Amino acid sequence: MEYLRKSVVVHEKLETIYLDYAFWQFQVPKRKLDTVEGMNDFVAKRYLASIVDINDTEVANLLNLFKEIGMFAHKRKEIYKLYEVLEVFEIMSTIWHALYYSHPIWDKLRNGELSESGFIAWVLHNYHLSRSAGVTASRCAAFSSRPDVRKVFLESALEEYPHCEYYYMINDKRLGITSDDVKNYVPLPSSIAIDQQMLRLAEDDWLAHIMVAYFQESTASYYKQCCDFYNQVETSYNLPGFFESWKGHIQLDIGYGHASAFTDILKSQEPISGKKVESSLKNAALAVQFIVDALDDILKLNMATDNLILRKPVSILSENAYDNFNDGISATEVLSKLKSKDIFTGFIFDKTRKISCEEVECIKIEIAFAMCRALSYSKRHDEILYIGKLLEANRPLIELRNNLDVVVPITNWAAGVSNFLRELALIPSHFVIGLSLVCLNLKEMGFNYKEIEGGNDYNSISYLMNFYKFSESEASLIVNEMVQLQELWFKNISTKIIEVDVFID
């Protein structure tokens, strides 16, 4: 037995000690703590559970229960077996489930307290989760370093990719939205962050990807509770039968046995380093934090107005905003569109958002990596030359990243922004516009951005911003991407960072 975890909240009231953990609350009379040797020090997290006098049967049983439900931290090890990692993960995921299911949104849905905009935002967030499932699974099937992981996620991708159409597509006159509204609805910033964190894990961290995939699929074990919840929501919003396809999807997941397919990989004696285990838990925790943050996003839309808000994509078509469509729209002109105030309806911004110097240094390292990625996808002569110059100027940051034992963004804000730029890098011209926008943001917030551009001797970004030309439709697509980047940059992301507290030295 070990110390109580940091996530166990201990407080006292009227001669009773309360221990809150995940879904449980334990009450212990203070006199019991005073009479059992070592118990006060243990509950205060000063000493190991082993100092407690377990000759007292009640206390011994209580400590055994604490251990069974994961209230103890594990002794940090240099090497784990994969089956041990599964045990540690299941302890950690208990807190994740508790954090997710204790969110206030669920009672608001049960009681019909979300506005029409909030309800639709929640429904379409679930659609977007389904739409991205096959995509992220396919990324892992293509890029994972492990054949067994590629095989499992290929099966997942082939099963999941059409489910957004079969189970979560909405064309319901009762809601007043069409299937086109659903397809075009701009995902919530945290919905995008979930998707892009999963894409990052699919390429870089197979263990974390399995953890989050298992966490998401294991909600199928709450099938009865989910059905009861959906029935309550249908009644509260007068939408009988609306969630029948959602219930069918849960049944399908149970039949496929997705959750067990993921955990089967971990049921082995294969060794893995303790540093890898801990970094994977941190990466997985970032994804789970985004899943919870998305519920906060929904509540922000809910509070905005009682009128229906559909997050429609921005369009610059037929606005006569540019006189030289035949010559193409430059990247500089595309970025200038963001200054228009009418594009922000239904979008979530908080211009008072503060970021730390540590967060900025973190994203600078990740920007350098994204430059390397962008160069690898570059094709045109000038594009290769000038993105190469950017990478050359930021070489020290790339070398710093390469020398790190593990690469985990320090906050969910840093992860959201850096992952977005990482995905933009697949289309170098879009990445350069995103990079220019980041430099503008840093400048406005008083941070040094010149080193990203390569210093005063480099003009790569300004050259490329005039080199690239876009069609009307592609320019509209890029404007939407930049609005989404601004949402991630200025969104007041939750400060409830999930701590990986299952290890002690």
Care to give the gist of this entry?
This protein is mainly α and 505 residues long. The protein has 24 helices and nine strands.
Keywords:
mainly alpha, 505 residues, two-stranded parallel ribbon, three-stranded antiparallel beta sheet, 60% helix, Heme Oxygenase, Chain A, single chain
Commentary on this structure:
It holds the Pfam family TENA_THI-4. The chain has 505 residues and is mainly alpha-helical. It folds into 3 domains: 3-73, no CATH class; 79-303, Heme oxygenase-like (Heme Oxygenase, Chain A, Up-down Bundle), CATH 1.20.910.10; 329-490, Heme Oxygenase, Chain A (Up-down Bundle), CATH 1.20.910. The protein is 60% helix and 6% strand. It has 24 helices and 9 strands. The chain has helices at 30-35, 39-43, 57-68, 82-101, 105-110, 116-143, 147-160, 163-166, 179-184, 189-204, 206-217, 223-236, 244-256, 258-264, 274-304, 331-336, 357-376, 381-393, 395-402, 412-424, 428-444, 450-453, 460-467, 472-490; strands at 9-13, 16-21, 24-29, 74-75, 79-81, 271-273, 329-330, 469-470, 503-504. It is globular, with a radius of gyration of 25 Å. 39% of the residues are buried.
Question: Layout of SSEs?
Answer:
Blueprint: E1 9-13, E2 16-21, E3 24-29, H1 30-35, H2 39-43, H3 57-68, E4 74-75, E5 79-81, H4 82-101, H5 105-110, H6 116-143, H7 147-160, H8 163-166, H9 179-184, H10 189-204, H11 206-217, H12 223-236, H13 244-256, H14 258-264, E6 271-273, H15 274-304, E7 329-330, H16 331-336, H17 357-376, H18 381-393, H19 395-402, H20 412-424, H21 428-444, H22 450-453, H23 460-467, E8 469-470, H24 472-490, E9 503-504
Helix pairs in contact: 4-15, 6-7, 6-10, 6-15, 10-11, 10-15, 10-20, 10-24, 11-14, 11-15, 17-18, 17-19, 17-20, 17-21, 18-23, 20-21, 21-23, 21-24
